[in-house]
Amino acid sequence: MPKKNKIKETKYIFVLGGVMSGLGKGIAASSIGYLLKQADVRVNIMKLDPYLNVDPGTMNPYQHGEVFVLDDGSETDLDLGHYERFIDVNMTKDNNATSGQIYSKVLERERKGEYLGETVQVIPHITDEIKDRIRALSIPKKYDVIICEVGGTVGDIESLPFMEAIRQLSLEVGYHNHMLVHVTLLPFVKASGELKSKPTQHSVMKLREIGLAPDMILCRSEHPIDQSVRDKIALFCNVRSDHVIEGRDVSSIYEVPLAMHEQNAGQLIKERLKIEKTPHLGLLKRFISNYNNPKHDVTIAMCGKYTELIDSYKSVMEAFVHAGVENNSRVSVKWIQTDRIKNNKTAKKAFSDVNGILILPGFGSRGAEGKIRSSKYSRENKIPFLGICLGLQCAVIDFARNVTGLKNANSTEFDKKTKYPVIDLMESQKAVKIKGGTMRLGAYDCEIKPGTRAYAAYRKKKISERHRHRYEVNNRYRNRLEKSGLIFSGINSDLGVVETIEIKDHPWFVAGQFHPELKSRVNRAHPLFREFIKASVKYTP
């Protein structure tokens, strides 16, 4: 039996960012988590978001990217998807705290009189609440290390209470029980051919102004960092030069833990936190080797309306990576704005060179008819098809119109007066007025019918998947659709909700009302994505 790390007290790693957002703090936190997990350390990760929204559930994807839904129904930041994929721990509502949640909780307590008439202030009441949320993730002690990523950029007004809480907590837990990792930017000036360290210096200076100092600096750069630059950063930022870690772009985010390990980052964390064992990275190395050396290439049409921002569909993209590796394939994506799919001619032009068609989730009527036409084209031309959430609904509408003969069948989301509402608002949603957190959210069971493609993918009769929707297949039309050949292969019998559909005489045509992309993992691709890519490999445009 391998010797387990014996860690008496919970330790904390804080991941902060400077200069600008979008530098990859989430990937850095996830990679550190992966290294610790592979060293048999019990680890979990938390995202602290300074915005005042309670959660990202009502935010435009262009503003915030994908909403990542957890088993417990929480709508959270997309970074929690990275956390789950890297450390293979199912997150809960406790893994994401926003300023909106923190301030709401404090004000709720004040209204209840829990502060006994005290003047409620940012310090200590807000900062105490933040510290309590961080500590609560491991109460009772379930984890050896808690990694806390703070959203935004050091110096933002919104993040100051979080920084102060981290400063206090660092003092309270002691030197060997905390570590601060600062992610920053080393821009390359082409005219001079130099990497510039000033932005990093200023970022660290701002950090020190608020009472924090980095123990490790992760420098995002498009070019190698030579020793002279490391030494300069070390001198002006008061860290050892071997604590300056290069964060260059890589072909896959899953290479980042390996890159950090090669630069001894894992060893430095071990020394600081007094962790005994080293990580086992053989499995990840094989994954990366397979990713970089595929036998096949497939192109998947991604049909949606937020195609200008890839982060809107981050989990789908990562699910393609996992499924591609398991099928010895590199998955390329062709983005299709479905509001441009006007007829069969435009559909043929869009899909003439793809191996598979995926209809993406979404809300609203924009691009919906294009999604319905895309589903029709896939069905008629026997191109492998996967529909997610709205993708299932559009597939049902196409089938109702063009196979069952229900002319102009539609969803009441798109046409409230449709004669044939084959997709309708869920009964439980009809009285809902508040937008945030009121959809059918989180994990629900689904019973899979034996002998179907869904059953062949999952290899079991009962599954659990995550949901985020208000509309569903109208059960009044199920018999008519089934008689026409539509297969309802997955049902939630408790609620009577259709969960998966498929059709016969097709290489692979499956759709789910849920979001399978949210449960795909490194070295464990989601069954539907795995089988979809397998079918796409076999299809020749």
Structure notes:
β3 (68-69) and β4 (75-76) form a beta hairpin. Helix content is 35%, strand content 22%. The protein is α/β, with parallel strands linked by helices. It is built from 18 helices and 23 strands. The protein has two domains: 11-286, P-loop containing nucleotide triphosphate hydrolases (Rossmann fold, 3-Layer(aba) Sandwich); 294-538, Rossmann fold. α1 (25-37) runs parallel beside α3 (79-87), α1 (25-37) packs across α9 (256-262) and α14 (368-381) packs across α15. The strands form five sheets. A nine-stranded mixed beta sheet has the order 13-12-14-15-23-22-21-18-19, sandwiched between helices.
Give the key terms.
single chain, 541 residues, 18 helices, Rossmann fold, 2 domains, seven-stranded parallel β-sheet, 35% helix, alpha/beta, nine-stranded mixed β-sheet
Q: What's this entry about, in short?
A:
The chain is 35% helix and 22% strand. The chain contains 18 helices and 23 strands.
Helical run tally: 18
> How many domain regions?
2
Helix content: 25-40%
Tell me the CATH superfamily of the largest domain. Answer: P-loop containing nucleotide triphosphate hydrolases
Structural class by secondary-structure content: alpha/beta
**CATH fold label of the largest domain:** Rossmann fold
The rough form would be described as globular
Q: How many beta-strand segments?
A: 23
Per CATH, the class of the largest domain reads Alpha Beta
Low-confidence stretches: none
| Main sheet makeup | 9 strands, mixed
Strand order of the largest sheet: 13-12-14-15-23-22-21-18-19
